[in-house]
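Working notes for the structural subgroup meeting. M.R. asked for a predicted model of this chain before we commit to crystallization trials. I am recording the input and output together here so anyone reviewing the notebook later can reproduce the run.

Input as submitted:
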Amino acid sequence: MAETIFSRILRGELPCHKVYEDDKVLAFLDIMPLSRGHLLVIPKEPAETVDQLSDESAAAIGRVLPRLARAVMKVSGATAYNILQNNGAPAHQAVFHVHFHIIPKLGADGLGIGWKSGRLDGADGAALAGEMAAAL
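Returned structure, recorded in token form:
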């Protein structure tokens, strides 16, 4: 895996405003926040995308995301938030180390997205679901 700013934070070479840490996960404030309380949650395991992450590290993140979201909401005063996670440059990933954003929605501050949805055909959906289930 390529060297990233998160690698340097994990090694203690760069400072961060740490909110949470255990043996598998580190959470800290984003230095370029979309809103007050914007938090980054990263695995300590080096992996660029979620599909490259071990089940153990993924489970560790999954265990702490709800607690971290509650803390973000309590402290920021937000009643809504987004959890965002991008995989690969075409999907807008900028730092190539798995990371989740917890972004409080505070009025106009927070994540703004456009969602161009399509329509799933029943037969195509059944075939696609079958292929994905077989790939597991």
